Amino acid sequence: MDNLDKRILELLQKEGRLTTAEIAENINLSASPCARRIKRLEKDKIIVGYQAKVSRARVNLGMTVFVHVNLNSHQERDLEHFEQIINTVPQVINGHVVSGQYDYLLEVVCSDLIAYESFMRKIRTIPMVKDINSNFAIRTFKEQTALPIQN
Prior knowledge:
Blueprint: H1 3-14, H2 20-26, H3 31-43, E1 63-71, H4 76-87, E2 92-97, E3 104-110, H5 113-124, E4 129-136
Antiparallel strand pairs: 1-3, 1-4, 2-3
Helix pairs in contact: 2-3
């Protein structure tokens, strides 16, 4: 990946609806070689998809909760089973295996406390869940999906 590829990635992360011609113009390249580069980045799985950024508040998902989860078993089959279950829960928008005091960190979105309580009822029924700790986001001061690609 060279500097032109990195510039393409930066541009697409800022505005995924740019045309190939617009990207090419921004990086001083003609459209055909630019299109080939984009296709190669997609083929090499460096670009893994395109999506619209949606306002959580405008779709009634203004509450964000960071949920720490500890499991009572760390056998591979239990970890896989827990992750499979979590992958089916639409309120969990990000899930991480973490080090430290907890096993998992889940980012959960919901409309309100009633919806969060419903989510928690589901999570508590998972057999290997030992402990759950929730942190409610009061205010988001930085929200970024673009990766800091270095030149």
